[in-house]
Amino acid sequence: MADIRVCFTKMGKLKYISHLDLQRAIHRMLIRSGLPISHTEGFNPHPRLNIALPLSIYQEGERELFDFRVTEDVSVDVIKEKLQKSAFPEMEIVSVEIAVGKLATKRAVWRIETESELSADEIKTALDGEMIVTKRTKNGETQVDISPMVKFVSAEKQNDIMILRVELPAAGNDYLNPSYVTAFFGDKLTVLRVVRENIVF
Amino acid sequence: MIDYEKYAPLLANVEKPGRYIGGEYGSEIPNPETAELRVCFCFPDTYEIGMSNLGIKILTGCFNNSGYISCERSYMPWPDMREQLIKHNMPLYALESGDALNVFDIIAFTLQYELCYTNVLSMLGLGGIPVLSKDRTDKDPIVVAGGPCAYNPEPIADFVDVFSIGEGEEALLEFTALVRDCKKQGLSREETLFRVSQLEGFYVPTLYDVEYNEDGTIMSFEPNREGVPKSVKKRIIENLDEAYFPCKCSVPFLETVHDRVMLEVFRGCIRGCRFCQAGMIYRPYREKSPEVLNQNAREAIDHSGYSEISLTSLSISDYTHLRELIDGLLDWTDKKNVNLSLPSMRIDNFYEELLEKVSSVRKSGLTFAPEAGTQRLRDVINKNITEDEIISACEKAFDGGRNSLKLYFMNGLPTETDEDICGIAQLGQNIVDTYYSKKRFGGGRGVNVTVSVSCFVPKPFTPFQWEPQDSLEELERKQQLLKSEIKTKKISYKYHDARVSRIEAVFARGDRKLGRALLEAYNRNMMLDGWDEYFSYDKWIDVFESCGIDASFYANRRFGIDEILPWDFIDIGVTKKFMKREYEKSQNAETTPDCRTKCSGCGASSLCNGKCVCDGGKENG
Question: How far is A145 from chain B (nearest CA, A)?
Answer without folding.
Answer: 28
